[in-house]
Structure formats: structure tokens, C-alpha cells
Amino acid sequence: MIKNIAFLCLLVTTTSSFAQYYKTYDWAENPTIHEISAEDANESSIGILKKHIVEYASGDSDQIPRRFETEHTIARVNDDKGIAQHNTVYIPMYDVKTVVDIKARTINSKGKITLLNQDNIKEVKNVDEYGDFKIFAIEGVEKNSEIEVLYTVEKEFDMYGSETLQTDYKIKKSQFLFIAGALNSNIKAYRTTSNFEYVKVNGKDEKLLTITDVPAMIDEEYSTPKANKIAVVYQCFPNGQNITQQMFWNNVANNVGNRFFAENVVKKAQTDVDKIIEGQSDLSDFKKAMLIDNFVKTNFTIVKNNNEELSDLDYILENRSSSDFGIMKVYGQYLKALDVDYEIVVTANRFLNKFDPEFFIPGMLRDFLIYLPSEKKYIAPDRIEARVGEAPFNILGNYGLFIPSDFDYYFSKIVEEDPDFSRIKRDMDISIDDDFEKVTIIEDQEYYGHWAETSRAVLNLSSEENIKEYKDYLTGAGIEDKEILSYSEANADINQVNYNLPFKVKSTISSESLLEDAGDSYIFQVGLVIGTQSELYQETERINPIEMTYPNRYNYEIIVHIPEGYSVEGLSSLNINKSYIGRTGEKLAKFESSYKKEGDKIIITIEEFYKTHEFSVSKYEDFRGVINAASDFNKAAILFKATE
Fold it and tell me: Of the candidates 193, 309, 343, 590, which lies 20 to 30 Å from 21 by C-alpha distance?
């Protein structure tokens, strides 16, 4: 969608023809097995080579440049898992005009070569919703073999492109060769310290990026691995054109602005607005926006397809059905009718793409928000669970292109205005029956921000089974054999008109599993009452920067009544204090638990917070110390001992 918006008119020009590089590029005529280290031999598979070549070429008769892409890979497979990972090859056919050549071979540990049978290449339509693929199985693969694949395709001309140079297995050498010839171009690499070097191709200086010993990208907790992979983005223009980044952004701002800022409010939209605010007056911009958001998300359905009608305003207002693109027009109409100033934000899901304001690539322009500058709050039109407030967690921390009504634009990092937007408050009153058969927990909970949004969404939009599972989470997750004696909710309606109204839960549960008989004493697993906690006991080196889902805070007060005739031991296990100190000396994350005794009560307080969602990987040990502190408390136990 944005790709079409941002595509600029091409000037028809020609250049002198030259020989395409892909025609001379080839694999080794007499391949041999590569030497690998003992460490690499312990991996299921190792990438010996991953090379991608993008080549733009123009001939005398061409109106626009031609684009060729070549992929050359060599993978060493050391065990059955490695074989399974590499012995089926998928070649994406998106934007492919012609398959120029496909070849593959296997070299086993004894040097025997098995070539691909071209008859085995099949075309498969829409594989797992990823589009069409050429697919073939590699023959002759056994342990300690190497699988080599080399193919070239001609693609539809596109001024923009990107390529990922990192995978989920180690690569000894990863390369990207960019051939633009006489055409103007730009290229940029992300998340690597390696630099492009110039190499001669057809007598011209072209750009080659070589990265050695690329680590496997692994899916670590508190990270965005898909968006963190080493990647290259590039731009290439028809001869005579040299479009600046500012020109690209101006074009997007004008195209988006013209579509989403309404000059006039249509009759049907005005009728809707009259209904939205019926009987209400003196509304703030926030209340107007919240009423609009509730109305749209109650009455309209967003459909995920490319039907043009779903972007037509008249059709949408009449049929209450829209694309995620078209629904922006509805918000624009309603906000204008109520005289609410707003800006359009174009950005990306940070778990998939990191938005770069300095380099225009349409692929990172995937998500739309509406920003209310007077309120410093966002509307997320395609997030049915969200209401006017902070940005959705999958957007938080990414940059965005902000477009005001005058179609000017600026870039800003999308951050939370309210540092305590998402938090949980829990108060527990815990008693043990006289014969130490069971524990009873009376609990009051308040969930704010994203916690509240998630809770309301699950309880209003999920199946009965999912609702049952979520109520289990809300009433002592991880406590075995618990019995829910009472349960009630407040502020559970998904439509809200007040800012960050907490979702509340009151419950009473009982459990026998929290107590363990120890002769004349009883062990009480008090830590389990805070629910299952995340753990970071990873021993391998951290690969990804640390990114939490969103900043959040927890405040607990737990009152434990000491049974008559018993004393308490082991309370020191309840004292835990771990912090993450930022560069300015501020505590950015903390888990602190402590207790005090007052008569026959033990009063435990817990404060845990994460003031940002981004933490330095260089201080990973400090971060995981805080995370693991919560897990350590979850394992804490105290001893009730009979007094003589």
C-alpha cells in the first residue's frame, strides 16, 4: 500500500548496454568439502557461504532498468537436524518475472557430487500465506555433507529493496554485492561493524559487504530477533534521477495527508457524529476522541483483503466494513466533525522492523496511528482492544513519521508520556486453618494500561476456554489444586471513556499444595502466591539487545496471619534487593521485597519496576539479576514451627 503511495514517476531514459554480471558468476567447477573447526562440527549446520547479488541493468531498448537477483549458499550439515533444516529449498516468486537459472548440488564427506534433477523443481502456490515458491528437495544428503544452491531470477523493477544477511544458524561468510552500474543509488547496512568496499564489476566500482563469522540469531526472551538481524537496504533510480530522502518523505506526507485529512465532512459521517455525542456537551478533545474510538470499534469491522471498496469512504460508512487503510478515513471524518486536531503517524511493528528516518524503504511503513497533540495520546485504529492512550506495545520505541494537517512532517521516537501507564497493584490477605490443611488467600487486584487492555480484550473477545484459562491466571497462576471460592470483576467493559481506568479483580481461593508437613512444623510456599515468574538463567552469551514488551510496575502487599501456637523461621528469604542502574545513576529497574512482623502478622511488601522497555545488552547481567529476583522470590518458603 505505502509502496504504491510512495512510488514516484519514472523518467524514461536509456544507458549504454553492458554485460550482466550474473551471466559470468558461477560456483567452483571442482568443489571440495570445506574445513571446519571442532566447535562448528558440533553445530547441526553451518553456513559456509551466504551471498546475495542485486544487479540493476539498462539496455538501449529498455524503458526502465532491469533487476536481477542471485543467491548463492553453501551449508554444511552435521546431523539429522541440520539435514532437515536444509534439504528442502524454497525460492520466493514474489515480484519474479523470469527464473533465469536454478541449480543445486550435494557434496558428501567423500567428495561425491550429486546434482539437482531439474524435473524435481515444483511451483507451490501461497505457502503458509507467504506467497508462491519454487520448491525442490536436495538429493544425496547425508551427515557431514555440503549443500550448495545457486539461482538467479529477474524481478520487476523496484527502486527499493532489502536483504537479510543473518539466519538462525552460524554463517562463516555472508556477502552482499550491489551492482548499480551508471545508475544513481544508495545503500545502507544495519547492525554490523563491517563496511562496504568497492570492487570492480564491468569496469565500474560496485559495493560489496563482507561479514565473517555471523552468529546465529536466536529467539531470546525480552528481544526482537526478527527485527535485529543484520540487513541491507538499498535504493536505485533510473538514469538521470537522484531522488533525495527528503523528497521521498515529502511524497509520503502529501499522499497520506491527502487521503486522511478530510476537506469536508460527508453527510453520513455527520449523522454518526451527532449520534456519538448525543446528550453530551462541553467535551474535552480526549472525551471526543474516546467516544469516536468506542463507536468505530463497536460498529465497524476491519477486513484483511485488497478489495478496493474497503478503502472507499462512502462504502465504508454505509456498510460498516473497511480495510485497515480505509478506517483511517472514518476517523478523519469524525475527528474533523468534532474539531479535534490530530496527526497521522506512519510507523512499523518494532518486533518486525526498526523504522529508520534517515533511509526511505516502503517496507517499514506498515502501521498507522492517530496522534492527538493536545492530549499527547494515540488512537490505534486497527487494534480493537486498545482505546485512546499510549501507543500499542508493538509500536512503542520505534520512530514514526508524524504528518500534521498542513502535510508538513517530522520524525519522533514513539514513547510513553505516562511512565506509570502499565502497572499492577495487588493486596493479599493470607490465613491458614487451624489444622494446617489449607491456605486461604483473599486478593484485591488492579490492572492499569496495557495490562488492563489485555484483560478486557481476553474477557470480551475470547472463547469460553480462553476466558477460563485467563481467570486461572488472575487467581494465583501456578498454584496447584486451588479452589476458587469467589471471583468478581469491575471495569471489565472494553469500551471506556475515562483515561486508564483500572480493571479490577477480587477473589478468594484456597489451596492445600502451598503447605508441606515437616514433623511438628509446616513449610509454607509463600513465594508461589505472586504467580509464575519469568526466568533468565541463560548461560550462553546474549545476542540481542534487551527489549521488554513495555515499561511496567508491580506493587504488592501480602499479609500472612501467623497461626496461634506457632513461631516463624526463614523470613530472611523474603528480603531480596536487585537493581539495574542506568548511566545517569538512576534506577531503571528494580525488584525489592521485604517484610516486617506486627503482632501475629507478617507484612510483605514488593516493589518491582521497569521504567523503560529498552536496556543495554552490555549490562545484561544486571537486567537478568532483576528478572531472576522475582523468580527467586517465587521459590521462597517460610517455616511455621510449633511453640512449646
Answer: 193
- Band the pLDDT of 18: cuts 50, 70, 90: low
> Which residue's entry shows cell 524454497?
90
User: CB-based contacts of 27: which residues, under 8 Å, 6+ apart?
Assistant: 72, 103, 105, 148, 150
Tell me the C-alpha distance between 499 and 513, whole Å.
40
Cβ atoms of 357 and 401 closer than 8 Å: yes
Compute the distance between CA of residue 4 and CA of residue 256 in angstroms, rounded to an integer.
Answer: 11
Is-contact 68 55, C-beta < 8 A? yes
- Grid coordinates representing 217? 540469531
Q: Which of 63, 66, 46, 61 is nearest to 9 (CA)?
A: 63
Total residue length of the chain: 644
Angle at 193 between CA 624 and CA 229, to 5 degrees: 60
C-alpha cell read off for 493: 467493559
Q: Are strands 231-236 and 185-190 parallel, antiparallel or unpaired?
A: antiparallel
Note the pTM of the prediction, 2 decimals. Answer: 0.91
The SS3 of residue 69 is strand
CA dihedral 325, 331, 332, 336 (to 10 degrees): 180
Give one word for 279, left, alpha or beta, with left for phi > 0 and alpha for psi -120 to 50: left
Per-residue pLDDT reduced to its tens digit, 335-344: 999 999 999 9
371 in Cβ contact with 397 (< 8 Å): no
Distance of CA 401 to the CA centre of its chain: 19
Using 50, 70 and 90 to split pLDDT, how confident is the model at 17? very low
Angstrom distance (rounded) from CA 426 to CA 200: 66
Tell me how far apart the alpha carbons of residues 81 and 27 are, in angstroms, rounded to a whole number.
26
Q: For the chain, state the CA radius of gyration.
A: 30
- β-bridge mates for residue 446, sequence order: 425, 504
Measured between alpha carbons, how far is 349 from 227 in angstroms, rounded to an integer? 9
Confidence check: pLDDT of 619 > 50: yes
- Distant-in-sequence, close-in-space partners of 252: CB < 8 Å, separation ≥ 6: 2, 5, 6, 346, 360, 365, 401, 409
Q: Do the beta carbons of residue 75 and residue 36 sit within 8 Å? A: no
The residue whose grid cell reads 535485529 is: 228
Grid coordinates of 408: 508538513
Q: How does pLDDT run across 44-68, given as a tens digit for each residue?
A: 999 999 999 999 987 554 568 999 9
